[in-house]
User: Fold this.
Amino acid sequence: MSWGHILFGVHGITDVDETYFDLMEQTDRELEIKCNEFAGELLVPEDEFRNDIVSFRAAGPEIIPQIAQKYSVSREVVLRRLLENKLVTSETYDALSKQWNRDYLRSRTKKPGGNYYRTRLAYLGEGFTHLAFERFYEGRLNKVQVATHLNINARNIDKLEQYLRW
Assistant:
C-alpha cells in the first residue's frame, strides 16, 4: 500500500500478478492509477529522474537495477516511470515485469523463510497492530476488517495475535 492509497482512503492491491487491474471498475482503475502516479512521483521525482533518462538511453534496460537502487525502489517502479515517459513500450513493460515476477517467485521458493507472523509484525509495527486488535475487541472492527487493515488473510488473524506482546 502506498501513501497515495492511504491519502485517498483506498486499499492498495499488493499482488505479484497484475491481472486484477483488468477486472476493476473504471473509476477504481483510475483511482489506482492516480495512487500509483502519486507514489511514483514521491519515490522517484521527475526532476531528478531526467538525469537517469539520459543514462537509460545510453545503456538500455540493463541500467534499471542501478537506477532502482539509487532511489531505493523496485525495478518495476523505475520501469513504470520509463513507461510514463514513453521510453519503453507497454509490451516491454509487460515482458520485463513478468520476467522479474517469475524470477522473484523462483528465488522465493528456493530460500528458507523466516517466521511469517514476526515478519508481519516487524513490517506493520506492534503499535499499529495493537490498535487494530483493540478496535476489534471494542467491537468497532470485525475480523475481516482487521485482516484488511493488516493486509493479511483473515484466517491468520488469531495466529498473528499470539505473537503480539500485550
In short: The chain has two domains: 3-110, 116-162. Residues 13-17 have pLDDT under 50 and may be disordered. The radius of gyration is 19 Å. Residues 64 and 102 are 17 Å apart (CA to CA).
